[in-house]
Each structure stands twice: as structure tokens, then as C-alpha cells.
Amino acid sequence: MVDPADIVLMNAGEILTLSGASKAPKTGAQMDDLGIIHNGALAIKDGLLVDIGPNDEIEKRYVVDALKRIDVGGKVVMPGFVDPHTHAVFGGSRVEEFELRLKGKGYLDILKEGGGILSTVRATRRLSLEALIGACEPYIDNMLLHGTTTVEVKSGYGLSLDEELKILEAIKRLDEGHPLDIVPTFLGAHAVPDEFRDNKNGYVKEVVAMLPRVKELGLARFCDVFCDEGAFSLEDSRRILTEAKNLGFGIKIHAGEFKDLGGAFLAAELGAVSVDHLDHVSEDGIKALARCKVMGVLLPGVPFFLGQKNQAQARRMIEMGLPIALGTDFNPGSCPTVSMQMIIALGCLEMGLTPAEAVSAATINAAHALGLGRQVGSLETGKRADVIVLDIPSYRHLPYLFGVNHVDMVIKAGKIVVEGKRIVR
Ligand code: NIG
Ligand code: FE
């Protein structure tokens, strides 16, 4: 018998440990191995995982008299989801645009006419900092209720120094006031704002000029650029991201959502942490990413929601040894879901991932896409106790019973924050 733990979770039908990939992401066949312990239990102390193993052993080792002992009754226990790509701080909605698109209007055509991202920019600029925080807190709550315990959130609906700083400040305040951990990314180069409609170069210069201020205030860990048709060229992206890299930002790139402009090569050249979307990318582009160990963050909800047939070639990427992660891309225009469970289902149904590969991509590999592979994304002793309990008998039911929330309980850094499908504070 050893020291009492703060919480012991007993009688898990399956514990998905995802162990062995804290130092480097899972690639190839490793993605199909979830490190499952059947009839398992785990112990948590001071916010960390202190023991994981077969139920009998953990039961013998821990005295939890005065503390919390939870019998999960055969359910699935796994690491909290890590969502490595969202645009979760915005004003308004795009429900009218959704209906226009259903009638056949194109996403990029709407943007060209000053709608799309730019309509969200107008709605976001209208809100005060407080109102923006108030509008977005429910999204963060909803993420937590769906089992996400770490999320990346990008700015990008401000498109001027003051408005981008307002969004980054909102992200910081949401992080401080919420159990979910938020990783902030600066995406000043999300679209060219109305004021610079005929002067894209002028706006690129403006973004470069914003970088030192964002850095100085410590408001973003990463810098991202939307490198695609209708947004920023490869040269624009190189200019902004090179400057960002010199200032010490981690680098991310939106590439190949609509067209392959060569963003994968730029990501490889700059040593980006991830390149995101990749619905359109050449074989050589994938090779360059695999060689330079850049994570491919795939966002199957986007082509699904935009009604586009090109999904990223996930199977080919796995075959070629590229580590891949899954994210929601939660935003009002191209994918308004916060549910990583839905994204896991789409990863299987739309991209041909196995359920196990999709789970690896949504946990440990997603953690690596944020540079957090040593802290979160798997259940191993010494790592943060971000644990979720799913009301299903096996992980294989997760994408199969798609479209509903299976998360029953969420433990964030050792504290129960969702119980019986409700947030507890
Ligand atoms: O990842 N690609 C750019 N940004 C988002 C869409 C943002 C929006 O439509 O508001 C994306 O798809
Ligand atoms: Fe995005």
C-alpha cells in the first residue's frame, strides 16, 4: 500500500493509454496501437497521473478512504481530446451564408464579394472585449462537455493591430477563466481587410509590423498564415512567417484547403510545427513534410461542411510516414462544430482512417501539433491528468455511434470538471 491518491478511477472496460509517443508523434502502424489496458484503473495525485494498470493491482496499491474513488463500470477511459486548430473567438454567425451555399454559391465567391471571413470580421469588430468573451465562453464550455481538454485558438477576425490584440486578449482571458487549456495563435494574415482591398502588399507589411507587438505582449505561441487561393500567396506567407520565426514564434500554415500553392514546401523549409488542411497537396509536398517531421493537421469537417469532394489523402500520408493529427477547425464559416468525436467519425468515414488511427490523431499526435506531446495527449505516469470517461463499451463504438456526445466525465489537471454530462465548477 502506498500514499492515498486524490482520485482513483476503477473498473474501466478499456483504458486507452496511447503510451510510448510522448517524445515523437505516432507514425505508420503505430497509429493503430492505442496501448489498451482491459479492466484497468488509474490513480491521480496533485493534478498528475501517478499510476495506471490492471484494476486488481491498482486497487491493492492505493488506499483512497477519505478521498475519491470512482467506479466507471466498464466504460472507456482515455486522454482528453486535444483540438489543434480552431478559430473560436468571433462575433455573430454565418447561418445565412450556410443557406446560400446550400443553394450552390461558392465559399470563395462569397469571400470575394466581401462576405465570408470579412463578414465575421465586421461582426467581431463591433463587439467590446467583454462582449466578445461573453459570446465565446459558451463555445469553450461546449468543447469541454465534448471532452476537449486542450485547444488551440487563432486570432484572425480583427485584421488590424488593435482588433487582433483584442481577440488575443479575449483568448488569454478565456484561458485564465476556464478549466480548458487554450494555446493562442496569431493569424493576422487570415484575409485582406476592406481597408486594404486594393493594396494586399500594404496589408502584408502591416501584419509584419504587428508581429513584434504581439510577441512583446506574450499573447501568442504560434504564428499562422492562410496560404491559399483567395487569401495569401506563397511569397506573402514566406515574408510573414520568416519574420515570425526570427521573433521566436512557432510556425503553422493553412495550406491546400482549396488549392496547392506549395505551402507544404514552405512549412518544411521553415521547420513549421504543423501544416493544416492539406486537402490539396502533391506527393512531393507530403514527402518534404515527412522528411522534415512537420505534422499534417487534417480537418475533415471542412470539405464535409463546404460540400467539397477533396478530402486529404490520409491513408497515403500514413503510408508515407507522415504523422497526422485531426482537428475541428471550429469557425463560423467552414466548420462550426466543436466536437472532436464528430471529427473522429469523419476521419473514419470520409478519409478511411481506422477508429484507432483517428483516436491517435485526436490525442497524442494533436498534442505534438501544439508542441505539448510531453505534457498531454496520453495517459502515462507523470503526465497531466486530463482524462475523459466515455459511456461506450469499447473505443470502436466512438465513430460508429456518430453524431452524439459520449463523454460522461471530464477530469482536467486532476479535477473533475464535467460529471454526468454537466460542467461542475
Ligand atoms: O480554416 N481557412 C481559413 N480559415 C478558416 C475559415 C474561416 C471562416 O470561414 O471564417 C478555415 O477554413
Ligand atoms: Fe482554419
Report on the architecture of this protein:
36% of the residues lie in helices and 22% in strands. It is α/β, with parallel strands linked by helices and 425 residues long. The strands form 2 sheets. Strands 1, 2, 3, 4, 5, 14, 15, 16 and 17 form a 9-stranded mixed beta sheet that branches. An 8-stranded parallel beta sheet has the order 6-7-8-9-10-11-12-13. Strand 7, helix 6 and strand 8 (181-189) form a beta-alpha-beta unit. Helix 7 runs parallel beside helix 8 (234-247). The structure holds N-(iminomethyl)-L-glutamic acid and fe (iii) ion (FE). Fe (iii) ion binds at residues 85, 87, 254, 329.
What does the secondary structure layout of this molecule look like, with pairings?
Layout: E1 7-16, E2 36-45, E3 48-54, H1 55-61, E4 68-71, E5 76-79, E6 81-83, H2 95-102, H3 107-112, H4 117-125, H5 129-145, E7 148-154, H6 161-176, E8 181-189, H7 200-216, E9 222-227, H8 234-247, E10 250-255, H9 263-270, E11 274-277, H10 283-291, E12 295-298, H11 301-306, H12 314-319, E13 324-326, H13 340-351, H14 355-362, H15 364-368, E14 387-390, H16 397-400, E15 407-412, E16 415-419, E17 422-423
Parallel strand pairs: 1-4, 1-5, 6-7, 7-8, 8-9, 9-10, 10-11, 11-12, 12-13
Antiparallel strand pairs: 1-2, 2-3, 5-14, 14-15, 15-16, 16-17
Helix pairs in contact: 5-6, 7-8, 9-10, 13-14
Bound molecules: N-(iminomethyl)-L-glutamic acid and fe (iii) ion.
Short description:
The chain has 425 residues and is α/β, with parallel strands linked by helices. The chain is built from 16 helices and 17 strands. The strands form 2 sheets. Strands 1, 2, 3, 4, 5, 14, 15, 16 and 17 form a 9-stranded mixed β-sheet that branches. An 8-stranded parallel β-sheet has the order 6-7-8-9-10-11-12-13.
